[in-house]
């Protein structure tokens, strides 16, 4: 039996294209319930191992979906969601439909960007001042932002931002201005990503 590996949930027209998918598959397509669709590829297991290669493929497929047909909004799933039947997957779509609708409305036309600000080793930095400067520059442009773990004592700030596609250039320019303002700090600016940090929808057991 072929199972379905889920990348995320979209609204509207089905998606289908050829690509390097998880577990060596070569295409992704949509399993739909009403207007909601789970973008999937085939897989032989419901408990896939998270290799570096497949984790990268998962993220790459999400980026392709975000760019597909002029840009699509997708509620991303974490790596490893697989179901043994289309029926089980459609049951999940039906049961979680209100939550998916809310999530899609929240992230429609937006993606996630990340910014880490790192101080040089042995450098003295006024953290509050830097945080305030970054917030003043970026918060008015972003729709939302959330803090991430400060996993190193050299991290001054670490945040994810939900940004409208139309505001991407403005946000890029604001980050560039910050880099010039704080030339003694390193700015690690990443994305765009599927907006993992701004959705919180559980899609049930893998069965």
Automatic annotation (TrEMBL):
InterPro entries hit by this protein: GvpL/GvpF
Cellular compartments annotated: Gas vesicle
GO cellular component: a single term: gas vesicle
Assigned keywords, A-Z: Gas vesicle
Position of the signal peptide: none
A Gene Ontology biological process term: gas vesicle organization
Family statement: Belongs to the gas vesicle GvpF/GvpL family.
Protein name as annotated: Protein gvpF
Lineage, broadest ranks: Archaea, Methanobacteriati, Methanobacteriota, Stenosarchaea group, Halobacteria
